[in-house]
């Protein structure tokens, strides 16, 4: 059966672009694209094209108007049965260029509602897209460079199936991994028997879309295939879960190119076997070892991050847990050419959920992290490292005071700051760096590409529980402000806001969590005000009148404390930073 993508009508495309432009204006000069569609939408995977553009896949929702004549219903259940198939998701593919413009937007028009969960680039400049229908069938599409269908395959069992990922193999084909509800029928086209309630399934395709083999793996319990990675010798390492009662364990399995098992290894929570471990991603590294990303729940049932590095013979090389202030989870990870990593996912507190980007060294030690999003529900699902070492990310974004998710594409730099569009920001950044070249060389300050100014001089960090400036701090800040304020005022037509953000370390004597947080929140605001007061006081009257319209002081308490080798650096956490936001 062959399905095609239908182009978005011109007027709808124009409206999408207008919404996109509105989103870009809201984000100023950040490379952050919010593609809004009616009802919920989202992106789950992303890849870079050979022409340096980006392509992401996910879903958008549509409402199918009934073609039958209107009728009256006396039975509510009959009405729901007839109307339930009129609304649902369809695969959506989006391409954007370096200027954050949408250059391609296509939605599938399949007879059955569906979602796309993975996209991989083919050597011929096209794509494989993997997904599933919402009623339980599996989909593979091969597209050309313009997202035109080359072929479509719908496959699976007669029961309910779900795809988790699609992996490009060295022979140009792909491997689909997911789960399938058990079938005991000997007449089933795909499997002869089932192993448990739900089983891990694998299906291997040639580059021409021919099914080479399909197999189930599992235990008498519920097994779900999560991800897989091809080894340098052509064998495949598969990660899955096994669930029973309140337990969920992780299973690693190595199979041959034909799907025959070579070895099997189980991972359990070491201290409390009742606590859940959930695998999220597995990748092969440049040294031909592997990294497995896990979500692990602690005794407080708060999720945190765990990485396991192992070799082809199941020997564990690194087992690293990342503890964060708020519950955090990683959905995707990629390796840079120098052995560092970028990992993306989400972080959540009592109020909202944000996209999370983490930078790690070659030993999976956390270097730094950043949170992105609105005061609502936002997350990152996938990341790809681009040719210039920037990372492109796909995910979901929710506007403030909204209940609908939107498709989200953004780019970040190797330091986890957001990439700026090649407009006035680049020129502004260059001018700012030139102005403070001496201070940068002396490591008194650091300027990030998102126009954040970090006060790095050791004298500019505050002492424990202190917010007042020392004489040394006053002298140094005065010298910095005498350069910064005239520069900002000269460029005032381009400046929207000057943020002054205060931070603290996490300690506060022997007090409970509530008092510790509130005391640090107050202290961080006091530190922000101290720097704001210094900056404002060192300006002349004309500059002060202008600054009064753009200054913004914020306190983060210890929400963004500095972590070095998995430990909080309390001294470096007691800091203040400035951020220039352009119009």
How does this model look, in words?
With 583 residues, this protein is an alpha+beta fold. The protein folds into three domains: 1-63 and 87-155 and 373-421, no CATH class; 170-323, no CATH class; 424-582, 60s Ribosomal Protein L30, Chain: A, CATH 3.30.1330.60. The protein has a five-stranded antiparallel β-sheet, with helices on one face. A five-stranded mixed β-sheet has the order 30-31-36-32-33. Strand 23 (328-335) and strand 24 (341-348) form a beta hairpin. It is globular, with a radius of gyration of 26 Å.
A few lines on this structure:
The protein is α+β, with helices and mostly antiparallel strands and 583 residues long. The chain is 17% helix and 43% strand.
Give structural attributes.
five-stranded mixed beta sheet, 583 residues, alpha+beta, disordered N terminus, 8 helices, five-stranded antiparallel beta sheet, globular, 60s Ribosomal Protein L30, Chain: A, single chain, 3 domains, 36 strands
């Amino acid at each position: 059966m062959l399905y095609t993508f239908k182009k978005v009508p011109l007027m709808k495309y124009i409206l999408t672009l207008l919404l996109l432009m509105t989103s870009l204006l809201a984000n100023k000069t950040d490379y952050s694209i919010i593609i809004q569609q009616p009802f919920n939408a989202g992106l789950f995977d992303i890849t870079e094209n050979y022409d340096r553009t980006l392509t992401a896949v996910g879903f958008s929702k549509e409402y199918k108007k009934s073609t039958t004549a209107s009728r009256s219903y006396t039975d509510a259940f009959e009405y729901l049965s007839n109307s339930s198939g009129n609304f649902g998701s369809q695969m959506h593919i989006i391409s954007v260029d370096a200027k954050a413009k949408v250059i391609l937007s296509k939605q599938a028009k399949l007879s059955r509602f569906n979602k796309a969960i993975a996209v991989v680039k083919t050597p011929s400049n096209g794509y494989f897209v993997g997904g599933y229908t919402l009623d339980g069938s599996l989909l593979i599409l091969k597209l050309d460079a313009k997202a035109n269908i080359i072929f479509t395959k719908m496959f699976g069992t007669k029961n309910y199936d779900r795809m988790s990922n699609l992996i490009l193999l060295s022979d140009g084909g792909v491997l689909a991994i997911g789960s399938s509800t058990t079938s005991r029928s000997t007449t089933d086209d795909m499997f002869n028997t089932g192993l448990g309630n739900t089983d891990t399934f694998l299906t291997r395709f040639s580059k021409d879309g021919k099914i080479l083999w399909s197999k189930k793996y599992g235990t008498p319990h519920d097994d779900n295939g999560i991800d897989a990675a091809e080894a340098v010798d052509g064998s495949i390492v598969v990660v899955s879960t096994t669930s029973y009662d309140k337990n969920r364990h992780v299973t690693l399995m190595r199979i041959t190119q034909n799907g025959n098992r070579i070895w099997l290894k189980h991972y359990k929570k070491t201290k409390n076997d009742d606590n859940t471990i959930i695998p999220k991603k597995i990748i092969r590294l440049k040294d031909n070892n592997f990294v497995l990303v896990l979500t692990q729940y602690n005794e407080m049932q708060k999720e945190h991050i765990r990485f396991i590095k192992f070799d082809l013979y199941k020997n564990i090389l690194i087992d690293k847990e990342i503890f964060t202030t708020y519950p955090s989870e990683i959905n995707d990870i990629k390796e840079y050419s120098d052995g560092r990593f970028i990992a993306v996912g989400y972080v959540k507190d009592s109020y909202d959920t944000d996209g999370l980007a983490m930078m790690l060294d070659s030993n999976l030690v956390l270097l730094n992290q950043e949170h992105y999003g609105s005061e609502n529900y936002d997350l990152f699902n996938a990341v790809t490292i681009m040719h210039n070492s920037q990372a492109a990310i796909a995910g979901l974004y929710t506007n403030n005071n909204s209940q609908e998710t939107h498709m989200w594409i953004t780019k970040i730099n190797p330091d986890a700051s957001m990439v700026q569009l090649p407009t006035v920001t680049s020129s502004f950044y260059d001018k700012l760096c030139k102005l403070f070249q001496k201070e940068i060389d002396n490591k008194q300050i650091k300027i990030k590409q998102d126009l954040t100014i970090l006060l790095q001089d050791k004298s500019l960090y505050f002492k424990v529980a202190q917010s007042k400036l020392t004489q040394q701090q006053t002298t140094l800040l005065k010298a910095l402000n005498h350069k910064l304020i005239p520069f900002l005022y000269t460029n005032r037509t381009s400046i929207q806001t000057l943020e002054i953000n205060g931070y603290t370390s996490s300690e506060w004597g022997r007090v409970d969590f509530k008092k510790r947080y509130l005391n640090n929140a107050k202290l961080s605001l006091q530190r922000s005000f101290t720097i704001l007061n210094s900056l404002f006081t060192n300006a002349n009257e004309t500059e002060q009148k202008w600054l009064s319209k753009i200054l913004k002081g914020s306190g983060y308490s210890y929400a963004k404390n500095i972590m070095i080798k998995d430990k909080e650096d309390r001294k470096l956490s007691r800091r203040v930073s400035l951020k220039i936001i352009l119009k």
